[in-house]
Amino acid sequence: MEPKSAFLQNLQESLSEGTFVKLTLSKPGRKGSDLKNVYARLVELKGETALSFTLRYATKDETKNHPIAEALGVIDLWLGEDFLNADLFTTQADISLQYNRKRKARLFRRKPTHEAPPARSHDKPKQYFIEPKGNAYLHAMGITSANGKVKADGQRKFRQINKYIEIVDSLLQQHGNFPQQPHIVDMGSGKGYLTFALYDHLLNNRKQQPTITGIELRDNLVDFCNTLAPKAGFTGLQFVAQDIFEYQPARIDMLIALHACDIATDIAIAKGVDAGAEIIIVAPCCHKQVRKAMQATDALQPMLRHGILQERQAELVTDGLRALLMEEQGYDTKVFEFVSTAHTPKNLMIVGIKGNGNPRDRREIDRIKADFGVSEHYLERLLLPVG
Ligand SMILES: C[S@@+](CC[C@H](N)C(=O)[O-])C[C@H]1O[C@@H](n2cnc3c(N)ncnc32)[C@H](O)[C@@H]1O
Fold first, then answer.
1. In what side-by-side order are the strands of the sheet with 348-354?
2. Which terminus of the chain faces fewer neighbouring Cβ atoms within 10 Å, N or C?
3. Distance 216 CA to ligand 1 centre (A)
4. Hey, whose CA ends up nearest to atom 20 of ligand 1?
5. Tens of pLDDT, residues 238-276
6. Are strands 254-258 and 279-283 parallel, antiparallel or unpaired?
7. What is the pLDDT of residues 142-159, one digit of tens each?
8. Rounded to the nearest whole angstrom, what is the distance from the C-alpha of residue 192 to the centroid of ligand 1?
9. Ligand 1 proximity of 252 Cβ (cutoff 6 Å)
10. Cα–ligand 1 centroid distance for 187 (angstroms)
């Protein structure tokens, strides 16, 4: 039997006998092909066995599921044309089909590297922190349809909501001592979808009794959110139309400011620090203040003659110093990307958890400012010197 037919027969048998582990196709056979390799595994879809292909392109992955007979046909077409290498792993043997430059095929059979087939994944509905169904506020905000399905143009926000809740949840788990009835302030709450989602998660998933206050300059958004909160049954959620600079909280356990513009992020951090918030979460937006206060040093001038690089530099310095200044105030900080840049370019998150921080020599921060040619960082002005 010729090698390709023997390979396909082995594949078919492994699928029917339950010895199949996985299959990979590699070494693209067509010049300039964007499809780099394919990885196949067995899944159960609506009670039917299928092969799930992950197609790896240069810049993205795509998943396609095919019933077994159809999948074998697709693989037959790919072998020796789109892919010149195929590796089949079964519990009986590892079998490779390899084509040389003249497209002559050879079959190799080795001892198996897998003892048992992997557990098959099922098409269970995905579990989210925030479920799309039955959440009136998601529908009112235009993220889901009336029957609780995430709309095509709501997907990005829905993913962002769930990623955000996942992060907050993990911070709460790390913290351990976070109060059962916390007061949380969301500064620059905007349309409020993240604020509502957090309230929903704390109340319904974590069984806490939160009070959350959203502070927002725009009256129309505050009215919208205040009308919606009681309809969603969120009695401890309220919104205040105010400049965050003026807001004087009695108590803050968690301070949040997501995409609050420029120095609004600094004001929020300072309010959180002053109130002794246990957790501070900010996702900065624009970085105009430091950009204006930054004069490239002679050493950096040749590189920073490009405006875009000046902007990147301003972002780096603004957020880097924010984290250092928070550490100086006794917060342990983390800086990371919280959603893929494909969802939003504003994806940096700075988290501070009250702890030991890193009380540092003031001259260290001064030196960084001097090295980057920064005359002033607004947060420094707002925070009281430590010690
Ligand atoms: C880009 S939106 C972000 C909204 C929300 N946090 C989110 O991430 O979806 C920023 C919001 O902050 C509000 N804002 C900016 N400066 C503010 C200030 N000084 N006081 C209160 N709200 C402010 C704006 O009106 C805007 O609605």
1. 237-241, 211-216, 183-187, 254-258, 279-283, 348-354, 331-337
2. C
3. 6
4. 243
5. 999 999 999 998 899 999 999 998 899 999 999 999 999
6. parallel
7. 999 988 899 989 998 998
8. 10
9. no
10. 7
